[in-house]
Amino acid sequence: MRTRFFSIIGVFCLGAVPFGSLICRFVLSKFAYQYVLFIVVTIFLIATLIFMARAVPKVYEPNALKVQI
């Protein structure tokens, strides 16, 4: 089941590359690449910090291991 799931995600990622190129071409024709890069890095940084703040306590919660055993 996991292999099917990850193969579907892989196909979606491969299909997203051409659309991302079209979007980047449009955005870069309107704005300087420094500003676009700064905005993209800022969005990824915020998303990463939110993920780390929410996911880490859930993943490393010691009570979850006691319930499974």
Task: Provide an overview of this structure.
By secondary structure, this protein is an all-alpha fold. The chain folds into two domains: 1-30; 31-69. It has three helices and no strands. It has helices at 2-30, 33-59, 62-68. The longest helix has 29 residues, at 2-30.
Helix and strand content put the structural class at mainly alpha
| Uncertain residue ranges | none
What does the radius of gyration come to? 19 Å
Main sheet summary:
none
What string, H for helix and E for strand, traces the elements in order?
Answer: HHH
Shape: flat
What percentage of residues falls in helices of 4 or more residues? over 70%
When the domains are counted, the total is: 2
First-last Cα distance: 24 Å
Number of helices: 3
Strand content: under 5%
Q: Mean of the pLDDT scores?
A: 84
Q: What is the strand tally?
A: 0
Brief digest:
With 69 residues, this protein is mainly α. The chain is built from three helices and no strands. The chain folds into two domains: 1-30; 31-69.
